UniProtKB/TrEMBL annotation:
GO biological process, one term: cobalamin metabolic process
Originating species: Rhagologus leucostigma
Lineage, opening ranks: Eukaryota, Metazoa, Chordata, Craniata, Vertebrata
Domain of life: Eukaryota
Key words of the record: Cobalamin, Cobalt, Cytoplasm, FAD, Flavoprotein, FMN, NADP, Oxidoreductase
Family: Belongs to the MMACHC family.
EC number(s) reported in the record: 1.16.1.6, 2.5.1.151
Protein name as it appears in the record: Cyanocobalamin reductase / alkylcobalamin dealkylase
Catalyses which reaction(s): apo-[alkylcobalamin reductase] + methylcob(III)alamin + glutathione = S-methyl glutathione + cob(I)alamin-[alkylcobalamin reductase] + H(+); apo-[alkylcobalamin reductase] + adenosylcob(III)alamin + glutathione = S-adenosylglutathione + cob(I)alamin-[alkylcobalamin reductase] + H(+); apo-[alkylcobalamin reductase] + an R-cob(III)alamin + glutathione = cob(I)alamin-[alkylcobalamin reductase] + an S-substituted glutathione + H(+); 2 cob(II)alamin-[cyanocobalamin reductase] + 2 hydrogen cyanide + NADP(+) = 2 cyanocob(III)alamin + 2 apo-[cyanocobalamin reductase] + NADPH + H(+)
Major subcellular site: cytoplasm
Cofactor: FAD; FMN
GO molecular function: cobalamin binding; cyanocobalamin reductase (cyanide-eliminating) (NADP+) activity; demethylase activity; FAD binding
Subcellular location: Cytoplasm
CDD domains reported in the protein's UniProt record: MMACHC-like
Length: 212
């Protein structure tokens, strides 16, 4: 419910909907690359002008909207910004309050070793660890769900030592991706997908056989 999200954030970040409004957080799993992105690129090759992943997600979420012709469905993407340069929604907070993934933050560590350093939090999924992404929010403004019960995210990095290790790896060694394997995972990105996301965005077109 939108109210769960708004309750944990300052008013500047609130979503402008009644508290009982139904919303879905959309995640992409490791198989998205082969099952969605590559077929999309092959089919829409001449229409891709922006980031291929963003366009692929946009395409699929617009198809979801089409499944509800009698409903108003608002879509927000993880990369969208407001005129104030704030993100339209805070993806990791949304994933946590929806019970989709646990958002580990500095406040989840009792004996904080970082002093005055800025430490960013990171979401971990109980099945995919860090091998997933939060892509968007689907909001159904005409559907109110007052009796929906809030699920808790699975606390899969439960020891103090592991949480410190996770935040250390994410903040200071994120390029090597070790933080993604902080727990035993069921599935991770393929080597091809790792190479794609490790490549600077401007050069990714070439990897997919697209001219820029």
């Amino acid at each position: 419910k939108v109210g769960w999200y708004n309750a944990v954030l300052q008013p500047a970040f609130h979503l402008p909907y009644p508290d009982d409004t139904l919303a879905f957080v959309v995640l992409s799993t490791p198989s998205m690359f082969d099952k969605a992105l590559k077929p999309f690129v092959n089919k829409e090759r001449l229409k891709i002008i922006r980031d291929p992943v963003d366009q692929c997600i946009s395409h699929h979420l617009s198809r979801v909207k089409e499944k509800f012709p009698d409903q108003r469905v608002d879509v927000m993407f993880d990369y969208e910004m407001l005129p104030s340069r704030k993100p339209k929604f805070l993806a990791q907070t949304a994933a946590h309050i929806a019970g989709a993934a646990f958002y580990y933050q500095r406040k989840d560590v009792k004996l904080d070793p970082w002093g005055k350093k800025k430490i960013f939090g990171v979401c971990i999924h109980p099945k995919y660890g860090g091998w997933f992404a939060i892509r968007g929010l689907l909001l159904f403004p005409d559907i109110q769900v007052p009796f929906l019960e809030q699920p808790s995210p699975v606390d899969c990095v439960s020891t103090e030592e592991k949480r410190i290790e996770l935040l250390e790896q994410f903040n200071f060694h994120w390029q090597d991706g070790r933080y993604r394997d902080i727990i035993e995972v069921k599935e991770r990105y393929s080597e091809e997908q790792k190479a794609y996301f490790a490549t600077p965005p401007a050069e990714r077109f070439r990897l997919l056989g697209l001219s820029q």
